[in-house]
Write a structure and sequence with these properties.
Strand order of the largest sheet: 1-2-3-4-5-6-7-10
Helix content: 40-55%
Number of strands: 10
Radius of gyration: 18 Å
EC number: 5.3.99.11
Protein name: 2-keto-myo-inositol isomerase
Strand content: 15-25%
Organism: Alicyclobacillus fastidiosus
Distance between the termini: 6 Å
Domain Xylose isomerase-like TIM barrel: 21-262
GO molecular function: isomerase activity
Largest sheet: 8 strands, parallel, barrel
Length: 279
């Protein structure tokens, strides 16, 4: 298993360059780069070439660009913008050597039939798969454990990527999102472990299904998520790749970045090393 840092964990108390330097010093293997805020901020004073050079000269490497948001069930102008943004992300991912682009389904208050959600997701993901293939970049779909997300359980997300049936389309399994809308371990047990591209590790306070929000996340091992069930099942189905720690807790943003990143590593290793060996 390899250790990765998701930049949401220091969203308000660090920058991309600071995250990279600290994570590299602390021995992280990978980083997920936030394309909504931290990468644009970095590019105000640096270039993508500068970032590529950093990765070429340091241990830490880019795992994913995070994220292409709200890719499904868009109107025609919205869909064209998704394709444009994705094409730009592919070029950046290729230049940096990132393996994945994380794709997040639509969050909306509009009621959309599940059949229409699946149809849109399948069509768009196949289109994006074709665009990604020449770059060697894979699409990691992240279901969001919130009632207003169009794809909000592991089972629903897994059914979609099964219908898509492309080698370069798989899933992000975020433990928080798995727990937050009551995803079923039986669905995970029946899954092909090779279709889980990225594991996000975290924990949460014990609120009812449908009420949890990102700010309720806790350091791994300190909350109500059945991490034993998720991690032991992932091991059973053959997942061995990367664990990426992702938190959004406001009180953690009040820590200095090095303390946040160190604690994220320590708590992640404490939990995950009971199931997986780290290289």
């Amino acid at each position: 298993m390899k250790l990765c840092f998701n930049e949401a964990t220091t969203l308000e108390n660090s920058s991309l360059l600071s995250d990279l330097e600290i994570c590299d010093q602390l021995g992280y293997d990978f980083i997920e780069i936030r394309t909504m805020d931290k990468l644009p901020e970095y590019l105000k004073t640096h270039t993508v070439g500068d970032l590529a050079t950093f990765f070429q000269t340091h241990h830490i490497k880019p795992l994913a660009l995070n994220a292409l948001v709200f890719f499904n069930n868009r109107d025609e102008p919205g869909h064209r913008e998704i394709v444009r943004e994705f094409t730009s992300m592919l070029q950046t991912a290729s230049q940096l050597g990132a393996k994945y682009i994380v794709a997040v389904p639509l969050v909306t208050e509009e009621k959309i039939l599940k059949a229409d959600i699946q149809s849109s997701c399948v069509d768009v993901l196949r289109e994006l798969s074709d665009l990604a293939a020449p770059y060697g970049v894979k699409i990691a779909v992240e279901f969001i454990g919130h009632p207003q997300c169009t794809v909000n359980t592991f089972g629903q997300a897994y059914e979609i990527i099964t219908v898509v049936d492309r080698e370069n389309v798989g899933l992000v399994l975020d433990c928080f999102h798995f727990h937050a809308m009551g995803s079923k371990l039986d669905d995970l047990k029946a899954a092909d472990g090779s279709k889980v591209f990225i594991l996000h590790i975290d924990d949460t306070e014990d609120y009812p299904i449908g009420f949890l929000t990102d700010e309720d996340r806790l350091w791994p091992g300190l909350g109500a998520i059945d991490l034993h069930g998720i991690l032991s099942t992932l091991k059973e189905i053959g997942y061995r790749d990367v664990v990426s720690v992702e938190l959004f807790r406001p009180e953690y943003y009040r820590l200095n970045a090095e303390e946040t990143i160190q604690t994220a590593k320590d708590t992640t290793l404490t939990v995950v090393s009971s199931y997986f060996d780290f290289d």
